[in-house]
Design brief:
two-stranded parallel ribbon; 4-stranded antiparallel beta sheet; single chain; 66% helix; alpha+beta; Alpha-Beta Plaits; elongated; Multidrug efflux transporter AcrB transmembrane fold
């Protein structure tokens, strides 16, 4: 078994672990800082909306022997100063995009490009997009996002509880905000492909969160009937038990998306691949982060405010304090090596705050060994 597999097995059995829930204030601070940077990027730089949303014209040329700089200067001169975006396509052609360009203004640009490339005008594919179509796409995207959020909250509230539904919703908003902020900071164009990518990452973002929540639901059944562990400690163990699986699934999902982003979009110059792959790449990474550092710690925070969980935490602290006091006072049975029947008390005092370990079994005293069986003569 590999080292990662061995670590995953030990995490699952509770032999080792990291106190994610106990250090939740650190993760909250990091997430708030990242979110503020993302929002600042959207406010300061804004989103580079594609012509599908702002309206304009797209010119696709055949394989050209002219540099993109020359083509941009030619198009800007013919378009009377409109912003021009030039992209290289994989087959050697060019994609020239000019926002807010009407039908009358598009014809001089097409003629100027054909003259610069020394090809006929019918060899240059011209597509005009009206701003109303982009508004319809944006409106439908917002409607789909709102419906998805409502359905997710309702389902999680029924399948689990309202605290988990609220935590998952906050994690989703966190992921979408970061992804949109990265788009603003990088300057990538927002197209219908970007919207598709954003809607796609919502499912990936929920996957790891629901897996952890399902394990947490099973682990916390009848939790108040014992006084060894608090809700936060059980939540931390559930998170550690699925940690390696979450990392593995995220890495496996990021590999093909990274290939689309860096190879397809970077080397081949495919614009649509950039639009979809960047949102998927950032969203997958943010979703894995939020399921580990945001969703589960937030559920533990909300749950610890429940009066029953407060009473449980109080009983756990009292029992551990009694155990520590007994050990400090030099219990006579402990000095004589008597394990005693109260092994729960010993385990509760020895268990770390962030890791819920396996319960130790009492050592066999070897009673009855060597005795003859049967009736005494």
């Amino acid at each position: 078994m590999s080292r990662l597999g061995t670590l995953g097995a030990r995490l699952y059995r509770g032999e080792v672990g990291y106190d994610f829930v106990g250090k939740r204030k650190i993760w909250y601070g990091v997430s708030i800082l990242i979110t503020i940077i993302a929002i600042a990027g959207v406010v300061v730089r804004g989103l580079n909306m594609g012509i599908e949303f702002s309206g304009g014209a797209v010119f696709t040329t055949p394989k050209a022997g002219v540099s993109t700089t020359d083509i941009r200067q030619t198009a800007e001169k013919a378009a009377d100063g409109h912003t021009v975006v030039v992209q290289e396509l994989g087959r050697g052609g060019l994609r020239i995009q000019i926002s807010e360009l009407g039908t009358k203004e598009a014809l001089p640009v097409q003629e100027a490009l054909s003259k610069k490339l020394d090809v006929s005008t019918n060899k240059i594919d011209t597509q005009l997009v009206g701003p109303s179509w982009g508004e319809q796409i944006a409106s439908k995207a917002w409607q789909g996002l709102a419906i998805f959020m409502v359905l997710v909250v309702v389902y999680l509230a029924i399948a689990f509880e309202w605290r988990m539904a609220l935590a998952a919703l906050i994690a989703l908003i966190h992921d979408i905000t970061i992804t949109v902020g990265i788009y603003a900071l990088v300057g990538f164009e927002v197209t219908p492909g970007t919207v598709i990518g954003l809607l796609t990452i919502l499912g990936y973002s929920l996957y790891d969160t629901v897996v952890v929540f399902d394990g947490l639901k099973e682990a916390t059944k009848d939790l108040t009937k014992q006084n060894r562990f608090t809700y936060s400690e059980v939540a931390n163990r559930s998170l550690n038990s699925t940690l390696v699986r979450s990392i593995n699934t995220t890495v496996v999902a990021l590999l093909p998306v990274g290939a689309l982003l860096f190879i397809g979009g970077g080397l081949l110059g495919a614009g649509m691949l950039n639009d979809i792959s960047l949102s998927l790449f950032v969203g997958l990474a943010a979703g894995a982060y939020s399921s580990i550092f945001i969703a589960t710690p937030l559920v533990a925070d909300l749950k610890e405010r429940d009066p029953r969980m407060k009473a449980l935490a109080k009983r756990v602290r009292a029992k551990r304090a009694a155990s520590a006091k007994a050990e400090a006072g030099g219990d006579r049975s402990a000095e004589e090596g008597d394990s005693g029947p109260d092994t729960d008390l010993e385990d509760a005092g020895a268990a770390p705050a962030g890791v819920v370990g396996q319960r130790r079994q009492p050592a066999s005293r070897g009673r009855g060994r060597g005795r003859p069986s049967g009736k005494r003569r």
